[in-house]
Amino acid sequence: MPRPAITLDDVLAITFTSAHAWSPDSRWLAFIHDDGGRYTLRAVEAASDRVAQISDGETPVTQFDWAPDGSLAYVQGGRVVTAALGPGGWAQRTLYEGRAPASAVAWSPAGVLAYVAGGRPWVLDPAGPSLREVDVPGRVAALGHEPALAWAPDGSALALTFEDGGWWDLATADASGRCLWRSRTENLEGPLAWLRPGRLLFARPATSYTAQEWLVLDLPGGRLRVVHREEEPDGLGAVFAPQPHPDGRHAVMVLRHEGWWHLYLLDTETGHLQTLTDGSCEDVGHTYDHPRISPDGREVVFATNRVDAGMRHLFSVDLASAALRRVVGAAGTSVEPAWSPDGRRIAFKHSTVRHAPELWVVGRDGDGPRRLVASMPPGVEADRFPLPRFTRTPGAAGWEIPGYLLAPRDLEPGRRYPALVYVHGGGMRQMREGFPPLETYAFFYAVSLWLAEQGVVSYLVNYRGGIGYGRTFEQGNAGGLAVLECEDCVRAGEYLKTLPFVDPARVGVWGISYGGWLTLASLCRFPETFALGINIAGIWDFDRWMAWAKASYRPAYDYFLGRARGPRDAHPDVWDAASPRHLVARMRAPVVNFHGTKDAAVPFEQMDLLVGDLVAHGKAFEAHYYPDETHLFTHRATWRDVLGKVTAALVRYLGPERATADPAALLLDGRAAPGGGFY
User: Fold this and answer.
1) What average pLDDT score do residues 230-245 get?
2) CATH of 391-654, one of 2.120.10.80, 3.40.50.410, 3.40.50.1820, 3.50.50.60
3) Buried b vs exposed e over 574-606: b needs ≥16 C-beta within 10 Å?
4) How many other C-beta atoms can be found within 10 angstroms of the C-beta atom of residue 321?
5) What is the DSSP letter of 240?
6) pLDDT tens-digit readout, 69-123
7) Cα-based distances in Å from 458 to 347, 422, 463
8) Percentage of the chain modeled with pLDDT above 90
């Protein structure tokens, strides 16, 4: 009997890279390598593909930065460690190890190291040596995927965002740690970029998160002026960091004045905005993928879906002529371009229907693309993977909702298979034609491939609110959080029931984070559609989650405030509808729940509230918690346990012999499938 194209062991053995960054001499690319929850700092030599592991030990590396001299500083297990390449390899030295764990590091161009420990910012000058605390109150935290600390181009000043008593402020300090300016508003300013020494560009959203201004701060006097304004009554979407031009005056912006994410060149002296790209397409790879200006300032490389809505290719736009050229046109998803400092090469991440995101490099003109770091384990027969089939299904309000169908390769004539609607998280995400670029969704795509080997049909629904299809689609859930997108997902389930190879009585729904939230909403709002729900770290009580997020997860709070069209007292009906718990009495299908106790995006309290309501209303459920696990689960052993329980739930609730089926044999239709699986 042939080996399955992909096994559970294969899924768990896929590795991922993140945060790739070039060394100052363009020789090395450093990155964080995730091998089943073991996060190590590594570097690959671009010319030879030689990979070196830099960090030692089992504690995870969470962030790093290159120093001007080519050494590295990184955060590992709450310590600040440096590593320098010598004749014997990379030598480590601990710079900070204290009771308050470190969380961020940033080297200045002048060789001064800023770091955050216990939420407090410090400035270390190794030449002094001197160590000083930065004179701002409260705690410093990274917001979304933006760095917590940002140095001016000459190292004369440091910008950071901090929280103080429930208020978030932007501040700048000099290299000695003395505070130069702070914003003193109730808005969460950012993202930001230093244009030149003494000039900072940043965004200030309105409290309602339906408009924002881009401001220039000039130091040392602290003069502020507005250079651009955006208004989106249905709520702002992602806010992309401006990319400063080497001339110190201009910045490349990602805006959607024409209804799609496109590139513009902003003159910060006059406020003039020059259009660089246009069309019915989006010129970003995902919600924290930024365009990058070449070191010589002549062109910008960016990811775009102008060729295919479900893929991303790398293009370049000439800043003088606005001429476009394709840099990487290979099928699949190419994102996160990064110029080498010498301007000769571009590093990027690339994934396809055959492999998860991998680190690649290409010449400036698109020549000689090479894979530097692989992702797939040996033994995987990727040529035998089922291919995703692009589909549009009916959605709420008469919309057509895009998605991808993954079915077993060899469907047996006349047999009807169980099926799952997979609901991605985000919600500003997008499942792709093949492996998505972000680790979580690439992992779930691999799980869907594995489920296909077991005889399970998957439908990966791109419900409204996601990116890739323009502003109207992304804002399509405004005023209807967990209602309109919920109906999109439910109708995808109804579509599956119409397929001749799907058993309409055995269709389930599952998802993580936002996907878990919509799974719970689907079971409560449309109790007759699904036979099973699997919720991983979903929101159950929207009010409680928003109260927590305002202080602890502010970017997400702002986003949802905009989509809810204001606070609770302005739209109580929208807020009530966003909490599935208000409809728990209607739930009929069993729901299997998973949550980590150290979840920093959806606190474990949501699982407690959910279980309490399910018990009180006599609903069928399972609840599985994982001590010290994170929002997306970190460790391979955790996922092995979770997916084992998912498999058992599929047999128990979607198999005809639900009461007696053996999860190890995965019985369906009264007989075991060859090789074990849903056949």
Assistant:
1) 96
2) 3.40.50.1820
3) bbebbbbbebbeebebbbbbbbbeebebbbbeb
4) 8
5) P
6) 999 999 999 999 999 999 999 999 999 999 999 999 999 999 999 999 999 999 9
7) 33, 7, 15
8) 92
Domain boundaries, the chain: 391-654
Which value, in Å, is the radius of gyration of the alpha carbons in the chain? 25
User: At what angle are helices 542-552 and 605-616 packed, to 10 degrees?
Assistant: 170
Cβ-Cβ contacts under 8 Å for 350 (sequence gap 6 or more): 328, 330, 332, 333, 334, 357, 358, 360, 371
Read off the pLDDT of residues 301-359 as tens digits, 9 standing for 90 and up: 999 999 999 999 999 999 999 999 999 999 999 999 999 999 999 999 999 999 999 99
Query: Lowest-pLDDT range, 66-70, 425-429, 459-463, 661-665?
Result: 661-665
For the record, the structure tokens of 104 come out as 């961020």
Task: Please give the helix or strand (H or E) that residue 6 lies within, else none.
Answer: none
Q: Measure the CA–CA gap between 315 and 324, rounded to whole angstroms.
A: 7
Rounded to an integer, the average pLDDT of 632-654 is 97
Q: What is the pLDDT of residue 670?
A: 30
The span from the CA of 251 to the CA of 607, in Å, is 44
Residue by residue, DSSP assigns 66-134 as: E-TTS-EEEEETTEEEEEEEETTEEEEEEEE--SSPEEEEEE-TTSPEEEEETTEEEEEETTTTEEEE-
Predicted local distance difference test score (pLDDT) of residue 89:
93
pTM of the complete model: 0.96
The token pair at 6 is 């992909």
Distance CA(360)–CA(367), nearest Å, equals 12
Nearest to 430 by CA among 634, 567, 237: 237
Distance CA 654, CA 531 (A): 7
The answer to whether 146 and 241 are in contact (CB under 8 A) is: yes
pLDDT at 30 over 60: yes
